[in-house]
Amino acid sequence: MTAPLDIVAGLGRAVLGASAQVGALVLFAANALVQLFRPPYGPRQFLRHFVEIAYFSLPVVALTALFTGMVLALQTHTGFARFNAESAMASVVVLSITRELGPVLTGLIVAGRVGAAMAAEIGTMRVTDQIDALRTLSTEPMKYLVAPRLLAGTLALPLLVVVANTLGVMGGFLVATLSLGFAGPAYLTSSWDVLEAMDVISGLIKAGVFGFLITLMGCWYGYQSQGGAQGVGKATTKAVVAASILILAFDYVLTQAFFSR
Known about the structure:
Blueprint (H helix, E strand, L loop, with lengths): L1 H35 L6 H13 L2 H24 L7 H39 L2 H7 L4 H38 L5 H11 L2 H28 L3 H32 L2
Helix pairs in contact: 1-6, 2-6, 3-4, 3-6, 4-6, 4-7, 4-8, 4-9, 6-8, 8-9
């Protein structure tokens, strides 16, 4: 009887520990959101993080989206050619990019680039007691470090996704017209006719949620880091992994909410 009870006890401890972590994370996010609406406001901090997320992530997001659209067009054409359905290629490319690949790939790229940087920066401040120094100077760390990042990430990701969607569709267009023999006007007409407002809006809403999750994970794991440089490295890794998993999980949840009819 001891072994089964030990298993149950272990599962119970795991569930309680996970529940405690989720509760602490929710309180952390709620505190940061409350700080957004409390004066004084810090536009400089917001702009700095917005530029860091949106502008400096733009090159890698643009290149990824462009080549993704090109590869997607090639693969779609190859598959549809088996069923003589090449004419549907434009529709598949534009819907795949705007609904899924644009938001998800952009989120994963920004998670690896920005989420890691945030966790490292805040984690370094934590282990070197700079966060405690902010409190000594009568500065609320959540308002100064976390709240501007959450707002910047939530607003920057949709803008990046607009760029990713545009370049992804452009990549498919270039391959279709230059390599596969499609007529440019016909391809664009097919793409435009199948595209609905909800396809674009759902991708932008996903992007906003992903931006919030990425910055939240970066700030959370950085804020909780301890143990010197090794602890900062672990926090950085955890932030990227957690943000990536949450992006994929919430992508399913939001897709189910938007398109389950």
